[in-house]
Amino acid sequence: MHCPTCEKEFYPQPDKLGVYFTNRDKNSKDAVRFSIQQCPSCCETLIIKEKGQAYKISNAIMFSDIESESVIYPQSSEFTIPQEVPKQFSDDILEAHEALNYSAKASAALSRRLLQKTLREVLGITKRDLSQEIETFINTANAPTYLTDAIDAVRQIGNFAAHPIKNANTGEIVEVEPGEAEWLLEVLESLFDFVFVQPAKLEQRRESLNKKLRELGKSELKSS
Question: Are the CB atoms for 59 and 37 separated by under 8 Å?
Fold first, then answer.
């Protein structure tokens, strides 16, 4: 987990805990736990929210099967999107990022749908399901290894075998694995850098070089 103030990673070691049930019998699959601690790096006070299962046994409360966790105070810095990303894609990833504050399941569904949209509309990869489209991207996109490995991990982290609807109907809101929603957003940022940002920067550099070549009376570089 990362501190929103100093961006340093920390391991949750809360000073205070509070568990809240969604029903009266103190046995809930949708319980919420809030914890308070200080960031060990910058000493910022942090409030962490977790969703999971909780059970009351005698005077003790057991909390397990964490579905999602996030720092809700202080608010993280504003999520920025490179200007090279087209609006129809930047709006979608911004919506997925904002949804993460309220529902990991909703955020993951938006991100999966956006991942498939990018593969289909930008890279022209259209297959029967998302898993096959990921496989085609890995084999044909000439992308760097860090990106192909990250996109391939979407299937493992999302546990497509146990939740095939994520693969067949990407926008469906279903259960998510711990960290899945956050991982999808990181993958999308890397993918957007590959398909939008770097090509735009390369074109700018090419145009700058061509301007110098024209001034020297030499042939221009052509786009590939």
Answer: no
